[in-house]
Amino acid sequence: MNIILLGPPGAGKGTQAHILVEGRDMIQLSTGDMLREAKDSGTEMGNKVAEVMARGELVTDEIVIGLIREKLQGDKKGGFIFDGFPRTLPQADALAALLEEQGETLDAVIEMQVDDEALVSRITARSTCANCGEVYNDITKPIPADGKCVKCGGTEFKRRADDNEESLKQRLMEYYKKTSPLIGYYYAKGQLGTIDGLGEIDEVKAAIAGALDK
Question: Which residues are catalytically annotated?
C-alpha cells in the first residue's frame, strides 16, 4: 500500500508516519530525510544533491523524483508513505508518472484537517528531544518531571526557531497557497480521505486506520 499524508506544518504527519512505519512495516519517504541521506551517500545522485545544497539553492523536482525512484526500486516492505511530497500540482503529476513507470499504485491520500488557531496554539508549545527527535508538547505531552526523554533517556530538549506564531502563520499561508490545490486534485481522482488532525494521537491513528482499511 502506498499513501500520501497531506496537511499543514504541525498537523502531525511525521508522528502518524512513524506509527504506520511501526504498525504496518511501511517505509516513510520524507523529502528532508532523503535529501540529508543522499547528501552523505557518495552516489551520483547524492553528489548532485550535495552540490545544489552547497550553493544554497533549492533542490529541483527532478532530483527529488530521482531519489524517490531509487527508493521505489529497493525494499518495498509494507509500502511507502509520502511525507512532504508532493507539495504542488506539477509534483503530483510527476509522482503519478513515476509510480506508473515503476508498476506501483497510489492507494490513498489522507488529508489531516486542522483548525489554524488551534494548530498555532499546539505548535508554539512543541519541543523535541535533541537526541532522538521524540516530540513533546507543553499542553498535551509535557516533558517528564524527571527531565528525561521517555524514548532514549536524553536530557536535552529544543524548540524549532520557526515554531513561533508569526513564522507559523507564514508557513500556513505558503502551504495553503501551494498545496491546497492537491486536495481537489486527489478528490477528483477518488483517492482522498479526510480526517480530523487535531485529535489525540491515538484518535488520529484510529481515523487513519479506518480510512486505509475501508
Answer: 13, 87, 126, 160, 171
